[in-house]
């Protein structure tokens, strides 16, 4: 590495006194990125694997912009077309540097080097796949997303590739930290410009929303379509289902159902979401729940016509006292469930009705012989006892099994009538903690809504609409109806059917 190159790479020091002002930092960072972008690729390879190696001299945290450029050029230079060099394989020197960087880079500096950030994230998945271990890319990519945006609330193309990777490798739990965060922004084509002195001024400021520095111009994301967003929610719902978090999965699918449609026509993702949503309603005991009012009525009609088997199953599940009808309905549609990849969820529906049946008994009985239950649901008393033990162990039933003193009764299921007793009992402290955590989630969502309202006031569309309303006789300024962010490409005017 030449002395001139080293001098160039070290010239941007984020902690320098002259960069304390946000505008000065912003100007210097932009100029630095532009300067590094014009350095020829051959210069980055000089001194590789020596004491003067740029990757050894630079600090990945303090010199994140320069390090990202150097690392990207190094990987590009040695990556083979048909094989992965040992240094890039998981456990190799470059792989370790890549993973360490994605976990420790300066997030403020990476707001200015979006293209390098995205390229390094893509390299991580490509290398892991080429090495035959795609699951090894999950943790580094997740770290990179959280490091850049702790809320991960600004949707990017990386969100979709990440959840695809998690589903492929069945890394459901690994995806949960990302899925649990609300998506509050979609990548816009043009970043919002705000006047000097206001809260949203430059990317390096303490912005309230990551949408101020993550957009299509920043380089952190490719252009996304409405279908990309819907696919993210469908796959996210499947991940939640794999974690048995059925309520969260149901809510994710509702995001798909309420998405604007083009020409009053439902797409395949909406149909897939409705089928799974119908089954999940059974699992969260909301069989009678209707689709959200904001869904497109014409599109939902089309979806329902194609999902009659699922609605029939939900209807059978609603009849809690008739397990025979549900079993028959499941058997009749066996080929449909298998073809749609929903056989596992259908089995959960049957188990759900069994659990509901047992739970309802607790409202009438304090104790009941297991043999009596077996006669009603089918199977032997031993099988019923094993099933009940599973329900108790998994937290579905606040009860215990005990041997009756009467020889002709056998095993008895005894319910705990006091909620402070039994395996599901919660102390007062645990209940307070649950309320506290819910309050935190509500407050965070309220702040994101407030931030979205503020950014809306700054858009050209809002101002134009406000002027239009003010010109009408007897009209005062009213808030405009908002559609999806202009960064979303639905290929057609997706709001036509809503006019």
TrEMBL record:
Domain spans labelled PCI: 339-405
Family annotation (Gene3D superfamilies): 1.25.40.570
COP9 signalosome complex subunit 3 N-terminal helical repeats domain sequence ranges: 44-187, 217-293
Localization annotation: Cytoplasm; Nucleus
BP-aspect Gene Ontology terms: ubiquitin-dependent protein catabolic process
Record InterPro entries: COP9_N, CSN3, PCI_dom
Any one Gene Ontology cellular component term annotated for this protein: cytoplasm
Keywords, ordered alphabetically: Cytoplasm, Nucleus, Signalosome
Family recorded in the similarity comment: Belongs to the CSN3 family.
Protein name in the entry: COP9 signalosome complex subunit 3
Native organism: Dothidotthia symphoricarpi CBS 119687
């Amino acid at each position: 590495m030449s002395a001139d190159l080293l001098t160039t790479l070290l010239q941007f020091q984020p902690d320098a006194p002259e960069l304390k002002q946000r505008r000065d930092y912003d100007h210097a960072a932009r100029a630095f990125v532009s300067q590094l972008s014009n350095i020829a690729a051959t210069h980055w390879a000089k001194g590789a694997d020596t004491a003067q190696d740029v990757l050894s001299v630079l600090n990945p945290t303090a010199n994140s912009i320069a390090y990202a450029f150097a690392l990207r050029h190094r990987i590009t230079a040695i990556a083979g077309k048909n094989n992965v060099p040992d240094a890039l394989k998981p456990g190799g020197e470059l792989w370790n540097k890549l993973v360490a960087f994605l976990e420790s880079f300066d997030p403020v500096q990476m707001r200015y080097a979006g293209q390098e950030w995205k390229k390094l994230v893509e390299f991580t998945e490509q290398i892991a796949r080429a090495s035959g271990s795609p699951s090894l890319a999950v943790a580094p990519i997740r770290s990179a997303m959280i490091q850049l945006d702790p809320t991960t609330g600004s949707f990017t193309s990386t969100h979709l590739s990440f959840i695809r990777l998690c589903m492929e490798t069945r890394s459901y739990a690994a995806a949960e930290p990302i899925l649990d965060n609300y998506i509050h922004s979609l990548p816009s084509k043009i970043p919002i410009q705000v006047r000097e002195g206001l809260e949203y001024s430059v990317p390096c400021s303490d912005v309230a929303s990551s949408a101020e520095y993550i957009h299509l111009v920043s380089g952190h994301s490719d252009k996304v379509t409405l279908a990309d967003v819907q696919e993210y929610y469908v796959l996210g719902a499947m991940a939640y289902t794999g974690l048995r978090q059925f309520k969260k999965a149901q809510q994710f699918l509702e995001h798909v159902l309420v998405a604007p449609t083009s020409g009053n026509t439902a797409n395949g993702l909406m149909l897939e979401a409705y089928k799974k949503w119908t089954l999940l309603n059974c699992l969260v005991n909301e069989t009678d729940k209707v689709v959200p009012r904001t869904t497109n009525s014409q599109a939902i009609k089309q979806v329902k016509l194609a999902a009659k088997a699922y609605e029939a199953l939900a209807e059978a599940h609603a009849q809690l006292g008739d397990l025979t009808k549900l079993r028959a309905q499941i058997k009749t549609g066996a080929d449909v469930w298998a073809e749609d990849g929903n056989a596992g969820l259908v089995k959960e529906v049957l188990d759900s009705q069994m659990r509901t049946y047992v739970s309802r008994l607790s409202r009438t009985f304090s104790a009941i012989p297991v043999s009596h239950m077996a006669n009603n649901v089918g199977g032997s008393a031993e099988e019923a006892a094993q099933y009940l033990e599973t329900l108790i162990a998994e937290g579905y039933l606040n009860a215990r099994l005990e041997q009756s003193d009467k020889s002709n009764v056998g095993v008895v299921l005894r319910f705990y009538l006091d909620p402070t007793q039994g395996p599901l009992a919660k102390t007062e402290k645990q209940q307070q903690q649950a309320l506290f955590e819910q309050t935190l989630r509500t407050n965070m969502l309220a702040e994101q809504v407030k931030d979205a309202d503020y950014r809306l006031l700054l858009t050209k569309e809002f101002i134009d609409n406000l002027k239009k309303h003010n010109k009408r006789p007897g009209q005062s300024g009213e808030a405009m109806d908002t559609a999806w962010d202009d960064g979303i490409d639905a290929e057609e005017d997706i709001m036509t059917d809503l006019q």
